[in-house]
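May I ask for a sample protein chain and its fold as tokens?
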Amino acid sequence: MTRNKIFVVHKSNGYKAFLSKIIIECSIDSWVFLGEDALIPYQLEISILNDIERYPLAEELGKSQYEHLEQYIDFIDDLESRSGEELWWASRLSWKNPWDSSFYLTYCQLDIYRKILLDDTFKNKNLLILVEDFALFECIKQNSNIDRPFSYYTAENYFDNITAILKSYSRRPYIFLCAAISKLMCRLIFKNTTFDTANLNQDNLIILPTFIDSRNFRSGVYSDPFIGKVFETESIKTNCAVIVPIDWVGTKHQLKLFNKWLENNGFKVFFLYNSLSLYNILLELSKFKNTSSSNKKISILNGLNITPLINKEKLRERRAFSLQNKLIKAFSKKVGAQVNNKLTIYPFENQAWERVFLYEMRKHNNIKSVGLQNAPCPALSTRFYFSKKLIDALPLPDTIIATGNVSFKNLETYYGLKTEILTSQSGRDFISGLSKNTLLKYSQVMVACSLGEKESVALITFVVNTLRNNKNFQVSIVPHPLANYDYVGLFKKLDCPAHISLKTSFADEMKKADVVLFDSSSAGLEALANGIQPIFIGSKNALHVNPNEFDAEITKYAYTEEQLMDALIYADMENPKEVIREYFGDGSTMPLTDILENIIKTTFSS
């Protein structure tokens, strides 16, 4: 058999037996998994690949992500702006949201593949590359120009394609049915608090887009974790405040709690579904065509042909449908048509819905828009950023209120020439944890999962593998409160021992924790704010969207099992107050309520 050969295998249903044959016949020396589903390599590692070296690419993935960040942002925005679409900045690709699109992750994996081919470590080895994504598999085939023997294997399951097409055809009728039911429920519950759009032209109107989900009802009553500080300003109740839920997920009981809160505070609500009519439904259904989309022009990024990745994203965008964006556009057009002064304050994350919301409003000088930062803006959170060449084409708020200096500096770099950037203290209420913070081993380990399902699975799998046989640690795994995933089933698949348990209360576990393990959530910041050691876990299967990214001294980093054990054993965290001050502001920073008070008075005095 010829040595020094590469075998690239696309993961498909029922391929385990096929892999076993390759491993035996081809004498595989080392293997790499390029994909998002951490359970795939886990199940292979404990079975047919348990005696074969796996390439540790977690740290390389983080480096690649930093290395190509600016190129990626410029490339995507330029590509989409040339599409000829009026709202090009609302597309799936231009949003650049790592939790919605896997494009950048897949591109970084392609970049790692190229580096592996040039790595002398593998030149005398037979290398097995397992590829989960078929578009990435196609990219690898098109970019394999290294002088080395290759073999490609796939068993593409066309039944999966048929299923995807059927799902996309059924998606619109399903969305409209849910919307009609929601509209009826809202009319019944919010009969006396619904805002009549005929009153849009009244004076001193404040429009407050926000979200409603389980986080709003943690205390048993309604509260708003996104723009809640707005309601604490003195001027808010002297004006007409209308809350516009952009997304809402809640039980009938929770919606009644929300309605009671509206009545007690004198606020109104407008649900976007109220704009839905039978005519709208029939019009949208008649437009629907589920066609394939292919990029005829070859797309090159950093010398790599990424056309299959672009085609995949375009196809997914055609099959998807956002009723939300259409209703938001219709509502903002109504608001923009009125001549009186208005103010809108919303949770700023530069999401696609925000751009659609501002699109009409930015055409009118009588509407002041304020984006209130809802989450930290780390440099790697690509959805916050865009090509600086195209800033004039984007609908942005008049003012962005950032929390702390880190976010302020990151946002100022991109938005400063077009938008006013202010900085304020954080509106967060931190948990009072009791950190032991000694030079002894940490015993209470909290694993804080992000909202992303695949990121969380990768994090949990890594921690369970590392601490499975170490009963010195009591490990509490806390899923994100909005996560819709079967974590109990995951625990069974991983055969979790008794000292690793699933918990539900973020606050309770934070109070008990000696250390917090996290990946892409803001839990590391919460830990720092409470004097608890944060450890960032670098994933082999997900992007490193890390809010603690600038803090390489206090936050510990673990990309391998050995690095995690070292981080858990040695505790040398110094006072984290300076780090927290950079992220969340301090007493010298103007309080958010004072900033909002000034904005409200200025808007309605002109």
Notes: DSSP finds 21 helices and 20 strands in the chain. The two ends are 82 Å apart (CA to CA). The longest strand covers residues 240-248. Confidence is low (pLDDT under 50) at residues 433-440.
